[in-house]
Amino acid sequence: LRSINILAIESSCDETAAAVVNNGREVRSNVISSQIELHKLYGGVVPEIASRKHIEKINQVIEEALKEAGVTLDDIDAVGVTYGPGLVGALLVGVAEAKAIAYARKLPLVGVHHIEGHISANYIEHPELEPPFLCLVVSGGHTHLVCVKDYGKYEILGRTRDDAAGEAYDKVARAIGLGYPGGPKIDRLAKEGNAEAIKFPKAHIEGAPYDFSFSGLKSAVLNYINGCQMKGESYNPADIAASFQKAVVDVLVEKSMAAVEEYGMNKFAIAGGVASNSALREGMKKACEEKGIAFYYPSPIYCTDNAAMIGAAAYYEYLAGTRHGWDLNAVPNLKL
Ligand code: KG4
Ligand code: ZN
């Protein structure tokens, strides 16, 4: 097999990222310029600010990615880029950039689905991992239980009906006075709390065993805090964090393992920003051990948005013959 270097670009939300990935699994560089400090001031991502910042950063990030990989554009075989789902203005920056480079250098252009990227992050550090497997994608924007039937072939078994798992973390974090993004902060605070202190509801949806719902849980946390305040009682944020996290993790583990069982899978993976959550990793690891199936998860750097995962996904799309034209557009609600 010929060695294929892909220059990958990701700009769907608030990270401007570029990477050079060889043969889908060897990351030669992975550069991320995060805008978190900027959006923190507003308690969440402001789309207009994200787009503007991407434009400012993207050329520099790509130059760094090439330099770090020790290559020039002459060594690149294809350009991969996230074209959805995400913020339309943010996506457009990466898509326009990828098209410009591919057109100027006469390179194939490969558009990638952001979730396919998150799933493919698992290929980077697990050379032995190949489809079929089951993958739970949990991020700030998505909660998808996906059957990866083959490279580029996905069946969505379930998804969230309302908030994404990461969104629930961020909203609860805000309610207990932790900053944005709240996921890592709740993760840390939960370690000092009692997960059995408060019983929060776990949503199960009639007739849709693999769908999720987190807005009820979020409301329950807010109601609990309001209730305490109205009664003039104090509450323990660490206990809230731990109990909330347990409710989230329990549901994710239960539904994932039920799907593993039904689909007869012997490999299970997690992906997305929330996949770096310590309780989720432990819970899944234990459950998979009990079932005697292999469990995969990416390092934290490949869990949150990055371009290396887009390079991994783009490689398999490239092998499958996926090529996009100069009319490639950003698709904010792109289906997997
Ligand atoms: O994948 P990602 O970077 O962006 C999206 O595609 O949405 O995920 C970001 C989300 C945020 O909601 C953040 O709070 C959450 O991932 N997150 C975590 C942890 N680290 C990041 N949630 C729980 N525990 C963590 N350790
Ligand atoms: Zn993401």
Automatic annotation (TrEMBL):
<keyword id="KW-0408">Iron</keyword>
<dbReference type="InterPro" id="IPR000905">
    <property type="entry name" value="Gcp-like_dom"/>
</dbReference>
<feature type="binding site">
    <location>
        <position position="170"/>
    </location>
    <ligand>
        <name>substrate</name>
    </ligand>
</feature>
<feature type="binding site">
    <location>
        <position position="118"/>
    </location>
    <ligand>
        <name>Fe cation</name>
    </ligand>
</feature>
<protein>
    <recommendedName>
        <fullName>tRNA N6-adenosine threonylcarbamoyltransferase</fullName>
        <ecNumber>2.3.1.234</ecNumber>
    </recommendedName>
</protein>
<feature type="binding site">
    <location>
        <position position="305"/>
    </location>
    <ligand>
        <name>Fe cation</name>
    </ligand>
</feature>
<feature type="domain" description="Gcp-like">
    <location>
        <begin position="26"/>
        <end position="311"/>
    </location>
</feature>
<dbReference type="Pfam" id="PF00814">
    <property type="entry name" value="TsaD"/>
</dbReference>
<feature type="binding site">
    <location>
        <position position="277"/>
    </location>
    <ligand>
        <name>substrate</name>
    </ligand>
</feature>
<feature type="binding site">
    <location>
        <begin position="137"/>
        <end position="141"/>
    </location>
    <ligand>
        <name>substrate</name>
    </ligand>
</feature>
<dbReference type="GO" id="GO:0061711">
    <property type="term" value="F:tRNA N(6)-L-threonylcarbamoyladenine synthase activity"/>
</dbReference>
<feature type="binding site">
    <location>
        <position position="187"/>
    </location>
    <ligand>
        <name>substrate</name>
    </ligand>
</feature>
<keyword id="KW-0819">tRNA processing</keyword>
<keyword id="KW-0012">Acyltransferase</keyword>
<dbReference type="InterPro" id="IPR017861">
    <property type="entry name" value="KAE1/TsaD"/>
</dbReference>
<comment type="function">
    <text>Required for the formation of a threonylcarbamoyl group on adenosine at position 37 (t(6)A37) in tRNAs that read codons beginning with adenine. Is involved in the transfer of the threonylcarbamoyl moiety of threonylcarbamoyl-AMP (TC-AMP) to the N6 group of A37, together with TsaE and TsaB. TsaD likely plays a direct catalytic role in this reaction.</text>
</comment>
<comment type="similarity">
    <text>Belongs to the KAE1 / TsaD family.</text>
</comment>
<keyword id="KW-0808">Transferase</keyword>
<feature type="binding site">
    <location>
        <position position="114"/>
    </location>
    <ligand>
        <name>Fe cation</name>
    </ligand>
</feature>
<keyword id="KW-0963">Cytoplasm</keyword>
<feature type="binding site">
    <location>
        <position position="183"/>
    </location>
    <ligand>
        <name>substrate</name>
    </ligand>
</feature>
<keyword id="KW-0479">Metal-binding</keyword>
<dbReference type="InterPro" id="IPR022450">
    <property type="entry name" value="TsaD"/>
</dbReference>
